[in-house]
Amino acid sequence: GALNLAFENLKKKLQEEGLFDPSRKKPLPPYPARIAVVTSPTGAAVRDIISTIKRRNPLVDIRIYPCLVQGPEAAESIVRALQSANAHKKDIDLILLGRGGGSTEDLWPFNEEAVARAVADSKIPIVSAVGHERDAVISDFVADLRAATPTAAAEHAVQDLSVAIGSLERMAPEALYRTLFARLEKNTDRLLRLGEIADVRMGTVLDRADRQLEFLALKLRMSNPLNVIRRGYSVVQSEKGAWILRASDLSVGDRLMLLMKDGIVRCTVEEVKTGS
Fold first, then answer.
1. pLDDT for residue 218
2. Is the confidence at residue 174, as pLDDT, over 80?
3. Is the pLDDT of residue 226 over 70?
4. Alpha carbon distance 170, 63 (integer Å)
């Protein structure tokens, strides 16, 4: 019908302008601390998003930017909410834009050109999650990531905190060092029994394993930042995980992580002084 024709015409127009190109899509932050949710404040979508984010990481700050999601005034309302979120871009890491399912007419505001261009103009990465998996709207194509549902959008946006902590522990050189020795000790008896059956073969395997283990142990000891932390220092990383070595690399407002002997501290730079 007329709506389908309008959809295809706008889709073709924006595609020819390059608004769907993967090269223009912004990467999502791996650990967003502040997320803006642009949706109806009373719908099921906002409840699903909030509950999913809080379940996966209760430390995330959620900010609701309310808007209409259907009806003749919805497109303008969505644009205003996106612009309002972008006005606070220094305080927001990611935007979730969406609503629950509905008819083609219900979802139509997300097919409006004004909404598509507001999504494209956003300086903050946007995840679009409109309707259900079978639904596809123009904002999905323009957004930096399309999720099948609002719940899926929250899952894409926020990594499970327990998984993140587990990954950090596995990445820590000292933890890896302990794991290597624990595994070696656990398998000693099995290796010895196999050695009795095929002494020559297992002797070769064990020699190779010993050399590899010695190399890994030396490498881990040389690169272990925890040796520095134990002496009373802290290690500074940017929010994205980059090591910070100089004060001149920082700006006021930057968010940092301080890795200390007994935990991790998140902080924001209020003043930068360089020199001696």
1. 66
2. no
3. no
4. 32
User: What angle is formed at CA 214 by the lines to CA 210 and CA 216, rounded to 5 degrees?
Assistant: 115
Collect all residues with Cβ–Cβ distance below 8 Å to 85 and sequence separation of at least 6: 36, 38, 63, 65, 92, 95, 122, 124
Mean pLDDT, rounded, for 148-171: 81
The DSSP 8-state label assigned to residue 60 in this structure reads P
Domain ranges within the chain, ordered by starting residue: 2-160, 172-224, 228-268
Query: Residue 20 has what DSSP assignment?
Result: T
According to CATH, the topology of domain 2-160 is Rossmann fold (3.40.50)
Cα four-point dihedral sign 70, 73, 76, 77: negative
Distances in whole angstroms, Cα of residue 145 to Cα of each of 5, 68, 120: 25, 22, 12
Task: Select from 207, 184, 204, 203 the least CA-distant residue to 195.
Answer: 203
Q: Which pLDDT belongs to residue 12?
A: 94
What mean pLDDT, rounded, does the chain reach? 84
pLDDT of 170: 61
